Amino acid sequence: MRPVLAAAALVVFLSGCETEEARRSATTEVLLGAAGFEIKTADTPEQKEQLDALTQRQIVRHTNDGEVHYVYADAASCGCLYKGSEANYQRYRDLASSSRSRGAQSLEAIEAQPGTNPDWQIW
């Protein structure tokens, strides 16, 4: 229960962000972290290039070798991506549904376009 309270407190704190988009992005990133998504920072030129090519600030469902991953890329703010499993995504949905009135993004992940799966070898 403490992670939920911490996430809720951060959401309230972040409501002071300058723009609605920045607020929504910050809220989503807090909730993704609370849901157990791994944060991967783009440290190499290859990672930065791949991060820039991904759909930005939306949760995208990727399938790689039959394994499902959910990815949220934010090249502009944190230079990172959040990667989670089906269980992490369901936890995010649970957390986000209780924070929806505070501007959390849509709870539905979009499907990745063909050929846009991240190369997990470089991450």
Task: List strands and helices in order, with pairings.
Blueprint: H1 2-14, H2 20-34, E1 38-41, H3 45-53, E2 59-64, E3 67-74, E4 80-84, H4 86-99, E5 110-111
Parallel strand pairs: 2-5
Antiparallel strand pairs: 1-4, 2-3, 3-4
Helix pairs in contact: 1-2, 2-4
Care to describe what's here?
The protein is α+β, with helices and mostly antiparallel strands and about 120 residues long. The chain has one domain (about 1-115). The chain is built from 4 helices and 5 strands; from the N terminus they run H-H-E-H-E-E-E-H-E. The protein has helices at about 1-15, 20-35, 45-55, 85-100; strands at about 40, 60-65, 65-75, 80-85, 110. A 5-stranded mixed sheet has the order 1-4-3-2-5, sandwiched between helices.
User: Which outline best applies?
Assistant: globular
The largest pleated sheet is described as:
5 strands, mixed
Strand order of the largest sheet: 1-4-3-2-5
The whole-angstrom Rg is 14 Å
**What does the average pLDDT come to?**
80
Q: Indicate how many domains the architecture comprises.
A: 1
- The total strand number stands at 5
**End-to-end CA span:** 31 Å
> Which structural category do the helix and sheet elements fall into?
alpha+beta
Order of helices and strands: HHEHEEEHE
Number of helices: 4
Low-confidence stretches: 101-105
Kindly state the percentage of residues in helix.
40-55%
**Beta-strand share of residues:** 15-25%
